[in-house]
Amino acid sequence: MARRTVITGIGVVAPGGDYTKGFWELLTAGRTATRRISAFDPGAFRSQVAAECDFDPALRGLRHREIRRMDRATQFAIACTRESLQDSGLDLDGVDRGRLAVSIGTAVGAATSLEQEYLVLSDTGRDWVVDHRYASPHLFNHFTPTTIATEVAWEVGAEGPVGVVSTGCTSGMDSVGHAYQLISEGRVDVAVTGATEAAISPLAVACFDALKATTPRNDDPEHAARPFDRTRNGFVIAEGAAMFVLEEYEHARRRGAHIYAEIAGFANRCNAYHMTALHPDGREMAEAMSAAMREAGVGPQDVDYINAHGSGTKQNDRHETGAFKRVLGQHAYEVPVSSIKSMIGHSLGAIGSIEIAACALAIEHSVVPPTANLHEKDPECDLDYVPLTARDHVVDTAVTVGSGFGGFQSAMVLRKWRGVNA
Questions:
Q1: Residue 274 pLDDT
Q2: From 142, 319, 346, 359, the catalytic residue
Q3: Which of 31, 89, 272, 347 has a beta carbon 3.0–4.6 Å from 240's, enabling a disulfide?
Q4: Is 346 noted as a catalytic residue in this protein?
Q5: Active site residue 169
Q6: Which residues span the domain enclosing 306?
Q7: Which CATH number does the domain housing residue 286 bear?
Q8: How many domains does one find in the chain?
Q9: Is 418 part of a structural domain of the chain?
Q10: Catalytic residue among 53, 80, 169, 381, which?
Q11: What pLDDT, on the 0 to 100 scale, is given for residue 422?
């Protein structure tokens, strides 16, 4: 019999709201954190909008040497790890380190540091042959995304399974799903898991420009992210991270831990069809949702809230709407659905973990975050997308979904814990 996995600690770095408390306050207020890019001059790009984190690593407790050796994404992960551990109240000295895992999600790793290093080594692209004498001593670490997991493992002293999951924009959900499976199978008792991304750089912006996947709504950055709205025209690139302490239930119960939610089911699928295209009927996402719900033992009528991928592209929003109807039937019209990307943008590999945090907090506080900027209803997206304003709503069961380039589709079921601290 599978062991039960619960969330006992949460740490967040997100645009517009520092720490988990600030993140949740931004979501429930329906505020947007999207703005004109300030990390560099975006004037040459089609899309000049992003959701940036006002992150000061020193204020989050990182030492000068840590800041020097770590890419920004790694800094996010360490800051969130420390917050999640403090939030959980877990005493690591009492944990069997061989049964402590780390599972980190990221789509592009330290790509921003690599881009910066290339500019230095090539003299801003002038030299075809780069000059290694100018290389940072930490350059190799930037090449290997496992460095992020290594840093987190060192931070917590993990000697169990440690690794990185990189499945594009589903990385943040898949990494937590992997940790959940490790606990369920009995391989570990505790996992520090989540995802991080810091990819607001000229190269990343240029890549999405070429795909025309990001919004060109540069004249109104605050309202540029418009999932499910008739006028939507692409997503807003973002950065951020979320980390969790997951525990096997009996392990958490013995120490009297506060439980945010139980992870009750997880599934991922690949459509093996196209790098970016999706079928409008939502079959691929529907299969992941159905599998996760079967594992959790919940039916359509049990679902109280859906956290949508909700990227704000025409294709994705139609695909999701079709998937929700396919899985939930008539109940799809009754369950609230929202996209927090409307407020904090799309942080690529990190967003799945950040959305898991939003679901756990929705369960904790009985509040559903809104879909900001949803003013004009799209007839093709005709479900209850909680426009503009957060809603008081009891959430016993939440489903969060993700979709990624490469045909990846993932879904996770979170459930209110009905144990000793319910």
A1: 74
A2: 346
A3: 347
A4: yes
A5: yes
A6: 5-110+145-411
A7: 3.40.47.10
A8: 1
A9: no
A10: 169
A11: 42
- Longest CA–CA span in the chain (Å) reads 64
The answer to whether the beta carbons of residues 367 and 27 sit under 8 Å apart is no
Query: pLDDT, tens digit, for every residue of 69-115?
Result: 999 999 999 999 999 999 999 999 999 999 999 999 999 999 999 99
**Token pair 């807003």 in the structure block, residue:** 236
pLDDT band at 421 (very low <50, low <70, confident <90, very high): very low
Geometric angle at alpha carbon 236, from 231 and 240, rounded to 5°: 145
Q: Rounded CA gap, 51 and 335, in Å?
A: 28
pLDDT tens profile 20-67: 999 999 999 999 999 999 999 999 999 999 999 999 999 999 999 999
* Residue 393 is among the residues annotated as catalytic for this protein: no
Considering the entire predicted model, what is its pTM?
Answer: 0.96
